Amino acid sequence: AADVPSGDTDYLTSLEQLSGPNHNVGKATSQFAINNQQGTACFVALNSVRAGSVSLIDVPEGEVVKPVIIVNAITAGGGLENAAGSENDSSGKGGVSIHPRTLIMAAEKSEVSIVQTFIDLDDESDANPKLVNGCTQVYVKEGAKVKHCYFEESGGLVTRGVETSNAEADEDTESPRDIEAKRDALKDTHFESIDVHVTGDDGSYEGTVMGVGANGQSRITVAITLLSTESHVDLNGLCLSGGVQRTGLRTLIHHVGQGSTSRQVQKNMIGGRVTIRLPSTEESGWSRVRSRLIVSSSRVQY
């Protein structure tokens, strides 16, 4: 690996520390880690300790590989039928945590396309509240090109007509809001930290992030560091939210190398009583950012 800031006073010169308890951003409570991971550094550190599902994509120098698809299929019970708090447990405590990890490395002048997705796997297991705490690391060397699509579409679907108030609903039927309030996936939380380092001259990363799931809370953070000359990033985002979801998509692009460039486009469609947060930070270099928002309800907070 090229020299990557460790968050302290030195640099990482190998891959051996990438899964250490402090990830690769120094102590999770340090200002460097907080800035780089936008408030999720502690969860990234937790992922480093608890990761149980790891995907590795290592593209050799000069190779152009076929698209790689990574599917994370999650059952309603999170894989634990007798989890604490389920019908078979009387402890009164509930919840399942899942910590998937993905490491993508593109060597010099290589090319790779990756599709990474989170979906529901239908089964008859009892629903457990779930925390999905993922971490994706991407390293792009000289002249390499990485295309990365991240789709978060777990949690089922938001109840149709949820933006309708109780007063507007039919008296003889249960209102969409009451139905939505009972939906199991509202207890679920999805966190993902995508950490990208373009470490070689003329390296490029093209990322697409789509948050179209129906979990109660979803937060995806993307931190990209352009460390070398003429490096470039294209970042596209789409959020679809409804009901009482809380959705966050945070991006940080740090231009370090001379002549590094970036382009970012963000589009959102929200309805019901959604709260959506979309802070974006660009540091140095040349960048173009465009954001569009479609609101279908007066009760949306933005």
Q: Which labels suit this protein?
A:
seven-stranded parallel beta sheet; 18 strands; mainly beta; nine-stranded parallel beta sheet; single chain; 302 residues
Commentary on this structure:
The chain has 302 residues and is mostly beta strands. It contains 3 helices and 18 strands. The strands form 3 sheets. Strands 3, 5, 6, 8, 10, 12, 14, 16 and 17 form a 9-stranded parallel sheet that branches. The relative contact order is 0.13.
The succession of helices and strands, N to C, reads: EEHHEEEEEEEHEEEEEEEEE
How many H/I helical runs? Answer: 3
* Average pLDDT level: 78
Output the structural class: mainly beta
Helix content: under 10%
Which residue ranges are poorly predicted, with pLDDT under 50 across at least 5 consecutive positions? none
Radius of gyration: 20 Å
Backbone shape: elongated
Number of strands: 18
Largest sheet: 9 strands, parallel
Distance linking N and C termini: 40 Å
**Range of strand content:** 35-45%
Secondary structure blueprint with pairings:
Elements: E1 4-5, E2 11-12, H1 31-37, H2 41-50, E3 53-59, E4 68-75, E5 96-98, E6 100-106, E7 111-121, E8 130-140, E9 145-152, H3 176-181, E10 189-198, E11 204-211, E12 217-226, E13 232-241, E14 246-255, E15 261-270, E16 275-277, E17 280-283, E18 286-295
Parallel strand pairs: 3-6, 4-7, 5-8, 6-8, 7-9, 8-10, 9-11, 10-12, 11-13, 12-14, 13-15, 14-16, 14-17, 15-18
Antiparallel strand pairs: 1-2
